[in-house]
């Protein structure tokens, strides 16, 4: 395992943080939010059936990728009914579950003068309250499509996963002029490889789905955040 170099002060650098299983170890934020909505009677077996039917129709292999790209459980629901619960969910469910090591790393990057970017496939309204509380300057997250004041169940591309993360970050870098060789990125899965390759200081956190092997191949530092 390669040791992580110290954080270097650089006013033109950025620090790109994945969220699920990185700053938030363990279960994904959207799964937690679905359970939260279930407990309040906002979703139920009908939404589970819709998701399973969609998955069965669109999955050639065993994969959850289609549910990253579509949100059948949101289809037809009013944003005001869902998003009004996001602040409470973040305060009660997400914030207490954040990694202490991850929060410490955020503070290190702030002190080093880095622009902090949260880039996640989680839903934008789900993590936006948390990003504000943490003082994150930029949030790149999945944006649900809305039509006639209802969710369509689709996400607006590009999705912040895999190549989509690279597209979003490239556009951000073009606007902000970040120095990528002096920048940092943290991610846990193959969906973060594109981002990790873009920066001078990639770091793999809580690796899953073969990411430990990828990290060894690239000689990227691996850390565990609880």
Tell me briefly what this model is:
The protein is of the alpha/beta class and 226 residues long. Helix content is 42%, strand content 18%. It contains 10 helices and 7 strands.
Task: Describe the protein.
This protein has a single domain (14-223), classed as 3-Layer(aba) Sandwich (Rossmann fold). Helices cover 42% and strands 18% of the residues. It contains 10 helices and 7 strands. The chain has helices spanning 29-39, 45-58, 65-69, 79-83, 86-94, 100-111, 124-134, 163-176, 193-198, 211-218; strands at residues 14-17, 115-123, 138-147, 150-156, 184-187, 201-205, 222-223. It has a 7-stranded mixed β-sheet. Helix 7 (124-134) links the parallel strand 2 (115-123) and strand 3. The longest helix has 14 residues, at 45-58. The chain is globular and about 50 Å long. Residues 52-56 and 58-66 have low confidence and may be disordered.
Describe the SSE topology.
Elements: E1 14-17, H1 29-39, H2 45-58, H3 65-69, H4 79-83, H5 86-94, H6 100-111, E2 115-123, H7 124-134, E3 138-147, E4 150-156, H8 163-176, E5 184-187, H9 193-198, E6 201-205, H10 211-218, E7 222-223
Parallel strand pairs: 1-2, 1-5, 2-3, 5-6, 6-7
Antiparallel strand pairs: 3-4
- Helical stretch tally: 10
| CATH homologous superfamily caption | HAD superfamily/HAD-like
Please give the order of strands in the largest beta sheet: 4-3-2-1-5-6-7
Uncertain residue segments: 52-56, 58-66
Mean pLDDT: 87
CATH fold-type name: Rossmann fold
Q: How much beta, percentage-wise?
A: 15-25%
* Total discrete domains: 1
Shape: globular
- Say how many strands there are: 7
The amount of helix comes to 40-55%
What's the CATH C level? Answer: Alpha Beta
Give the end-to-end Cα distance, rounded to a whole number of Å. 18 Å
Class from secondary-structure proportions: alpha/beta
Instruction: Based on the coordinates given, report the CATH architecture.
Output: 3-Layer(aba) Sandwich
Question: What is the H-and-E element order?
Answer: EHHHHHHEHEEHEHEHE
User: Taking Cα atoms only, what radius of gyration do you get, to the nearest Å?
Assistant: 18 Å
The main β sheet shows up as: 7 strands, mixed
């Amino acid at each position: 395992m390669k040791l992580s170099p110290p954080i270097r002060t650089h006013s033109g650098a950025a620090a790109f943080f994945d969220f699920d299983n990185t700053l938030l170890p363990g279960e994904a934020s959207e799964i937690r939010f679905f359970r939260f909505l279930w407990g309040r009677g906002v979703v139920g077996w009908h939404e589970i059936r819709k998701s399973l039917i969609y998955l069965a129709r669109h999955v050639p292999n065993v994969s959850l990728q289609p549910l990253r790209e579509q949100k059948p459980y949101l289809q037809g629901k009013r944003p005001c009914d869902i998003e009004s619960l996001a602040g409470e969910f973040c305060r009660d469910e997400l914030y207490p579950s954040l990694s202490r090591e991850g929060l410490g790393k955020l503070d290190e990057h702030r002190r080093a003068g880095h622009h902090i970017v949260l880039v996640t496939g989680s839903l934008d309204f789900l993590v936006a309250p948390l990003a504000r509380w943490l003082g994150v300057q930029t949030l790149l997250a999945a944006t649900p499509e809305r039509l006639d004041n209802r969710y369509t169940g689709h996400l607006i591309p590009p999705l912040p996963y895999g190549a989509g993360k690279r597209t979003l970050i490239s556009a951000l870098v073009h606007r902000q002029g970040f120095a990528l060789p002096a920048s940092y990125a943290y991610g846990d899965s193959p969906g973060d490889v594109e981002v990790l390759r873009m920066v001078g200081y990639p770091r793999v956190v809580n690796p899953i789905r073969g990411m430990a092997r990828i990290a060894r191949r690239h000689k990227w530092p691996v850390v565990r955040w609880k």
